[in-house]
Amino acid sequence: MSTGYRSPSFLRDSWRIARKDLRIEFRTRSGFLSASVFALLSVAIFRFSWDPTAVRSLDLAPGVLWVIFTFSGLLGLNRSFGVEHADRAMDALLASPVSREAIFAGKALGNLVFVLGVQALALPTVALFFGLPLGPGWLAVVAVAVLAAIGLVAVGTLFSAIASNTRLAEMLLPMLALPFFVPVLIPAAQATAAMLAERPLADAVPWLKILGAFDIVFVAACTVAFPFTLEE
Amino acid sequence: MSATSDALVAHGVSRRFGPRTVVREVSLALADGDCLALFGPNGAGKTTLLRLLGGLLRPHGGTVTLHGHTLPGDADTRRLLGVVSHKSMLYDALTVRENVTFAAECQGVRDVRSAVDRVLDLLLVRDREHQPVRALSRGLQQRVSVARALVHGPRLVLCDEPYTGLDDVGARALTGALRALKAAGATVVLITHNLSEGLELATHAAIMRDGRFVHEAGRPTDGFDLPSFAAHYRALIAGGE
Fold first, then answer.
1. Which residues of B fall within a CB distance of 8 Å from A93?
2. Cβ(B40)–Cβ(B207) under 8 Å?
């Protein structure tokens, strides 16, 4: 058994936890598969219930995108702490020198990669099904999606930790998290609409500022609050 | 229960869950190299006490200190801990080596590879190192769980029914590992329902009921009397006390 130890490092520990979560997801693929199937089915349902003569695709697409991003993301977030509680692996993490904040950051980073992966699948699918023009506005939409994913994942990770301690985790997480998603989703959808319509960037800037502000607030608040969710 | 040079000290520790008090003002002191075997019927509060001793639960009364640091303590204090439970605390999609390596990295072990090799050899699971944990039997998973807990050479090992699911080979490997740790000066707290397993390593023993120690025994030189202790335990289990 070893005698030499490294001091804990927030970044190293966070990355280690995220890498472990992604490795588990890569092996099982259960979360990504269910989220992807959900996203693709949702796109298909929205597409075939859409009347192009009544609503323009540019008006409908932002709402469709964010409904899909939100609910498919929740499917992944639900699993985030499930893997820690199945055999009480969380106890081993808590008894280790890794800080609670690093555990949160690692979990959030793993969830962010998951959500971005689902977005990477859903975004071109929506563009294809709704015949959206693939102009330079799409790069800006990708940037908005990443920015919004940060806020959604911060809140979702915190509430996933809370919900996973209960027997009704899968039902409780959406009930807890969705109200807190709203301040992120409204500016994200508005900015997406502006970008897709290729309106001047200035139209989207106020929404992007709100989105950025909520990202900062949510990431900071959730990091501080997370250790309290671990108390029994 | 007290020892001369205290490594683990609990003073008047209590814990409630809702209106129910599960651990009531328990005090103990264990020195380096001591092993406390903790017995008692189901629901006596043993697991809760163990979680309090490891800083995994905060006490509602009293304090727990490990080498002078109040638990849960800072990173250096938590590094002194190793926890084994009847739950494996493993990730079943990861391989044996990945699980133990992850634990070693979280503990900040510098030479991860050799630490992992050593502990996998010690627990006789080296030949399974590339198998996912979910493909192992319950007993092998438990051995891997012990390897995970011991990979960083903890100074306090908390074991909650660690022999659950182990065959003779696994049980001997676990006893050997705990004995080696004890000889190296680690303190061990061991919960078990099996008297012979518990007392094989014990320097102290206690029977818990309703959140309290109802019978304690110290080192053999202090009058540790196995037949008398066993009689007390059996009487308690039978509801005779």
1. 106
2. yes
